[in-house]
Design brief:
mainly alpha, 2 domains
């Protein structure tokens, strides 16, 4: 009895024909899918053991193995000159490993960007609602020691005796904290520089001079005409 005859009888005894047929079909349908190249290679060899005479040559084994790999790996191996099944497995495994590393780095970068974005969003949401930002404070008119920076009408109302819009009471000549207003023009108290008597008097004199000059100019023009 030859070795081939012995193997044939051994297979017929321990591996029934219906099992060999099922394993052959499983080998035909085998694809890598989402498993690793290593697991795909192990499964390929396991199924081939049931039908060792299915592939006529090494080239057929290589082509069948490569056709079952993921498309990106197939494209990478298509330009290579591969002479054995194990060489095809090694090259496919290296490409798959590099692909996995790149994917993990990409996922890590995306996760970091999401973390930064969520942290910034949480920081904005955690800020007190009543707290104003610096530009909002500037826009709404901040004050220093009770005196508004950009509300000149308030000092005018305080000086004239009208009701203060800040505290709701009348305190002419003083701030909300009862401290007298200080004039930076004459150094006096009870008024501000813009409403200083000296400034008001100067404006009044200027207007009278303008009226006088205009009257004289009008008379001179009339006499010439």
């Amino acid at each position: 009895m030859t070795w081939d005859e012995f193997k044939a009888k051994l297979k017929a005894r321990f591996i029934p024909s219906h099992i060999r047929k099922a394993k052959k079909q499983e080998l035909l349908d085998l694809k890598q899918g989402s498993i690793s190249v290593e697991d795909y290679f192990v499964k390929f060899n396991e199924l081939e053991m049931y039908v060792p005479d299915y592939f006529s040559c090494e080239r057929d084994r290589i082509d069948h193995f490569v056709d079952g790999l993921q498309h990106r790996i197939q494209e990478a191996l298509a330009v290579l000159d591969i002479s054995s099944l194990y060489e095809a497995y090694e090259r496919a495994a290296r490409f798959y490993q590099k692909q996995e590393v790149r994917q993990k780095e990409s996922e890590k970068e995306i996760g970091y960007q999401h973390q930064v974005r969520d942290k910034g969003k949480a920081k904005v949401e955690d800020e007190p609602k009543g707290k104003k930002k610096w530009w909002q404070m500037f826009r709404s008119g901040p004050s220093y020691k009770g005196i508004s920076i950009n509300e000149p009408s308030q000092e005018r109302s305080q000086q004239s005796g009208a009701v203060c819009r800040r505290c709701g009471t009348s305190h002419p000549g003083t701030r909300c904290d009862k401290v007298p207003l200080t004039c930076f023009k004459c150094g006096g108290s009870g008024h501000i520089a813009r409403l200083c008597p000296s400034v008001v008097t100067a404006r009044k004199v200027t207007r009278e001079r303008i009226r006088t000059i205009m009257a004289r100019w009008s008379k001179s023009v009339t006499s010439v005409i």
